[in-house]
Amino acid sequence: MAFNLYIWIACLLLLCLLVYQEIKRPNKHWLGARLFASLLAVAMLALLIVPINVNQQSKQQPTQLNIISAGYHADGLAQIPHQKYFLEEALASTLKRKANFIPDLAYHLAAHPEINNIAVYGYGLTGEQLKQIKNIPLEFHPAEKPSGVIACHWKDELKEGETLVVQGQYRHHRSKAVNLKLIGFGKTLDSTQIIGNSTTKFSFQHQIKQKGRSVLQLVALQGKDTLSQEPIPVQTLAKTSLKIVVLGSSPGFEYNFLKKWLYENQYALALRNRISKDKYSIEFLNRSNIDINRLSTQLLQKEDVLLLDQQEFESISASEKQAIKQAVAQGLGLIILAQEPNTTEPWLKSFNLAAIKKQEKINQLQLTSSPIKLAALPEQAPFSIGNRPDQQPLVLDGPSAIAVQKLYGKGKIVTTTLSNSYQWRLTGNQQDYALYWSSLLEAAARNTAPNYLLQTESNIPRDMSKLNFSLSTPSATIPAITNQQQSLSSQQNMLFSNRWQFQYWPLQSGWHQVAVDGQKQHFFVFGKENWQALSADQRIKQNIAYALSHPSPKVLPQTTIILKKTISKWWFFIAFVLATGFLWFESRLYNQN
């Protein structure tokens, strides 16, 4: 743009010089014609350098783009009219000389604006390709639904002692049954059988005792044949030893069993049970003695969790209640065992405690953080906790919440109405007891380190593909992100100052690592051969949804497009030659006279 401006300024100065010379010349014969010829010559000279574009409307006949994707049988290509294309290099050997390869769909559509309909055959376009077609109508011809694991979910980061749960769906088109096994650490951890010609849900459980990173295998076997083998990557993190203070209004089974479990799991415990008004029974397990006869903010600031029942909370002095509130606001975790819905304590009243109707059948309790259902207890919880927007349910008894979490300053408050969890241990359900109390302690525990949350946009990150990451940090300070001693640049979210996006291209499958402000974050990258049935099923669903929202018309309309056309410079050159030729001829004629 600046270059064109300089050209026009130079030509204007040249025109002024020519006009001055023509006016100054003694012979005024043909003066008007000479001035016009000078103007024309200078203008044509400028137009020879500066391109001139004009917009033209053009009516294009309707054009359909036929795309062959994975899953479509090459035998059916003859039934597809007109030219066919494919986008995946893996199909090149199958579709050689039968279809043309498009390396970049977005570029192809930009180069062919007349395309106003797309027909896709097979499993369909990928999610990224659906974004590139920019609302063009889609006619989707799906291939046969894939056979194999079409849905699978598991928690890829576990705490020590936590149970791994792998759930999903398997579609099987054959009549012979399939054995589906979860294999790891050299043995079969869990298994089930998928009957023929069915789509069956499966659920596997295993408590991983090994710490660190591991890759289990989800294997489908039919006789001696291995139909599929999919990796299940899992990280098991070491359990953090929390400092816990427990205050009981009186000794009882609930506190005795909880004390033993906390001791067995290496928690630092200070237990105080009230015997009479001013007398206590005090025990210290896995820690040195401290003074817990009277609570203070200084004492509680050194602890991670304070657990007490409703009666004890109402019995302590006003100064101790104030110390607890200040400590929670500064980060202490508080667990309250609610004992009755009628209370005068403001904190407990805010939870909307309400009695539960007596049920004929006692429900299995459900943890909201895990798909595992806990064993039913001999007695149901006496009352539930009402729904509030500032509360997050932790444990459900049918539709009712019996344990919730809410924030208070920098700390967290957990309230539960279950007073007989010890019966899990009496009935031999040790794992259910551990899951219940681990969930409550984790929900309430003080945050001891900066929280960095790293997530990938893709649920199946693959090698040789771009991975988009989102990162949440404790502050708005720009995080230092490195991979193999190379820095990765990040972009700050425009709405949330502590959220960032960055990209990474993994060259191989397996475990990968990035360091965020020195803290190592591990993630797993799958190979292109992994989870093919799941990916194909997702593609089919995405393309069906897009085709329903962007239906293809029965009669394709003509497309009016705006073409930008550059005027040929030959016309300017001819006019320039005629103008300069006239000036030359006139000057020669003047000199002869």
Automatic annotation (TrEMBL):
Membrane in keyword set: yes
InterPro entries per the UniProt record, alphabetical: Class_I_gatase-like (IPR029062)
Transmembrane parts of this sequence: 6-23, 35-54, 567-585
Species in which this protein is naturally found: Pedobacter chitinilyticus
Keywords: Membrane, Transmembrane, Transmembrane helix
Protein name: Aerotolerance regulator N-terminal domain-containing protein
